Amino acid sequence: MQARQTPAFETPDHRRIYEYVEQHGAVAPREVAEAVGMDPEKFNHELTILKRDGYLEERDDALRVDLEAGTAEEYTNDEAEFVIRPARQEDLSGIVGVIRRITREKTYLVAESVVEQIDFEGVLIRHNDVETRMFFVATVGGDVVGWAHLEAPELEKLSHAAKLTVGVLEEYRRHGIGGHLLHRSLEWASTHGYRRVYNSIPATNQEAARFLENHDFETEAIRKEHYMIDDEFTAELMMARSL
Predict the structure, then answer these.
(1) Which of 69, 210, 215, 229 is the most buried (most CB within 10 A)?
(2) Which residues pair with 218 in a beta bridge?
């Protein structure tokens, strides 16, 4: 299965297995078999087909949605050593913690809605009839210090464009981590059929605006007095980049 294809299944059993895994993020095969009420022999047969067709992958004794996101990449410079890799379900708490720390600055309001959504759902990666959602993380010493997130509806007229959020903890900025996260997410978006990526930020967040401009994003629109931050109206910069 190509990741951007809306999931389509040969049998209702395939759909039941896939949907259970997709809704839970990472699940032991035995738990899935019990949840869908399938005997082990039949379950293993159906699972083999789903893995063969690229719907699911099995890693670390757990089943996960397969979105062909590549492998971990290590980077070293004079000031930092870090890893950029596809996020795993186990990164959920780390990503939530990082986004919450950054959004306390009140300069990245879109990310606030993202963290509320994933914290409520308890799932990072989504690919179903309604939406596709992908995360990449930056880690230092195994700890999440930054993220990049892409999300798009599975609607024909909108599925060419993905919403982006990206952020790095203050103490790890200016080491190139944000740029590598952005590059990895844009590369994935382009490979999987997206043509445009967009991000919206308060006009007061000039650091983020400069970062995006330095990576070929353009301000396409400004919505005046769109946000209310600390009892003051703030405009929204709607920025986008074609792939």
Answers:
(1) 69
(2) 240
**Among all chains, which residue has been given the structure tokens 């997206």?**
194
Structure pTM? 0.90
CA distances from 55 to 4, 68, 129, 189 (A): 11, 10, 13, 18
Rg (CA), the chain: 19
Does the domain made of 12-65 have the CATH classification 1.10.10.10? yes
Q: What would the mean pLDDT of 204-221 be, rounded to a whole number?
A: 94
Pairing of strands 196-202, 143-153: unpaired
Name 58's bridge partners.
63
CB 126 within 8 A of CB 152: no
CATH topology of domain 73-242: Aminopeptidase (3.40.630)
pLDDT digits (tens, 9 = 90+) for 151-201: 988 766 566 889 999 999 999 998 999 999 999 999 999 998 899 999 998
